[in-house]
Design goal:
Layout: H1 13-35, H2 38-46, E1 52-53, H3 61-70, E2 76-78, H4 80-85, E3 88-90, E4 97-103, E5 105-108, E6 114-117, E7 123-131, E8 135-137
Parallel strand pairs: 1-2
Antiparallel strand pairs: 2-7, 3-8, 4-7, 5-6
Length: 141
């Protein structure tokens, strides 16, 4: 069954302006980090220590630098669905920081293991992540 795209409500002019401003900020940050050498990126990433996702994957030095520019105290980050999976929820009113994540086609093998096929060309998308300090435990039902 093919995945269906969700339709979104059109943005209001205020939402569109905020989106464009955020997009330009991310472009500026990305250009600054891209201009650094690999060693400079690694040194900057060490400033906040190792940052992990809530799924225990270490962030790349580039994404660690992205977080430094947006939220210098990040330790463990994840998207809303990732936090929900581990029993936490993002607190109401919190704003995310943005990182780049690779895009690819997910495939599941016969043993049920999921692999991401990146194909010949690596593509990335920007996603919002939240630090553990921006989350709280989900209430038991």
């Amino acid at each position: 069954m093919p995945a269906t795209k969700r339709s979104r409500k059109p943005m209001t002019p205020e939402q569109q302006a905020a989106y464009e401003e955020r997009r330009e900020q991310m472009r500026t940050i990305t250009k600054k980090i891209s201009a650094l050498t690999d060693d400079e990126r690694a040194q900057m990433a060490r400033q906040i220590g190792t940052v992990y996702t809530c799924e225990r994957r270490e962030l790349s030095p580039f994404n660690a630098c992205m977080l430094i520019f947006q939220r210098g105290d990040a330790t463990i980050v994840g998207g809303v669905r990732q936090w929900n999976t581990v029993g936490r929820k993002v607190k109401k009113g919190e704003h995310g920081s943005y990182i780049w994540v690779p895009m690819g086609r997910r495939e599941t093998d016969d043993q049920g293991t999921t692999h991401v096929d990146m194909g010949d060309e690596r593509r990335f998308k920007m996603v919002a992540v939240f630090d553990v300090a921006q989350t709280e435990l989900m209430e038991e039902e």
